[in-house]
Write a structure and sequence with these properties.
Distance between the termini: 20 Å
Radius of gyration: 18 Å
CATH class of the largest domain: Mainly Alpha
Strand order of the largest sheet: 1-3-2
Oligomer: single chain
CATH topology of the largest domain: Arc Repressor Mutant, subunit A
Strand content: 5-15%
CATH architecture of the largest domain: Orthogonal Bundle
Shape: elongated
Helix content: 55-70%
Number of helices: 6
Order of helices and strands: HEHHEEHHH
Number of domains: 2
Length: 159
């Protein structure tokens, strides 16, 4: 499975680790947790330490979730990772900017496909996606991206 397809699994797992206030996660711990989550999903591929650093860099960026990590967080010269705000999670991040544009583009593409015979299931998925996209306070990035991802997977499995 390609690295970009495992990204959602990696981001969710890293988020779960960074949200845990009771454990210090060093880079090796994050990598082990991500690899375990990937294997639980049925994939044999693992990720490298460099990939975890890249994921953290993306999660800190404007294109990611603008996460803030505790600085400097070290134990015996080893750096551990934790959110600055203990209650933060990427699941509660609202959709905005470029992500909102991507969701709207996906809605347009899926809307075009919904009229094709055999894609009756797409109408329900599309309706839920449109409802969530219109209600700004209830719209979360992961929910929308999961709906889009599931819809596209179902679409290609049905073709």
């Amino acid at each position: 499975m390609g690295r970009n397809k495992m990204a959602l699994i990696r981001y969710r797992t890293i988020d779960k680790c960074l949200s845990n206030p009771f454990k210090h996660y060093f880079i090796d711990d994050l990598r082990n947790e991500v690899n375990a989550a990937i294997q639980n999903e049925g994939y044999s591929d693992g990720v490298s330490e460099r990939q975890i650093y890249e994921d953290l860099r993306f999660m800190k960026s404007e294109n990611g979730w603008n996460i803030e990590l505790e600085e400097p967080a070290r134990i015996n010269k080893k750096r551990y990772y934790r959110y600055k705000d203990r209650k933060f999670t990427i699941n509660d991040s609202p959709v905005g900017g470029r992500r909102e544009e991507i969701v709207n583009e996906a809605i347009l593409v899926l809307n075009e496909l919904s009229g094709i015979p055999g894609f009756y299931w797409l109408n329900e998925t599309l309706a839920r996606l449109v409802d969530r996209a219109k209600s700004k306070q209830a719209t979360h990035c992961f929910i929308c991206s999961q709906l889009i991802f599931k819809g596209i997977i179902l679409l290609f499995n049905g073709v």
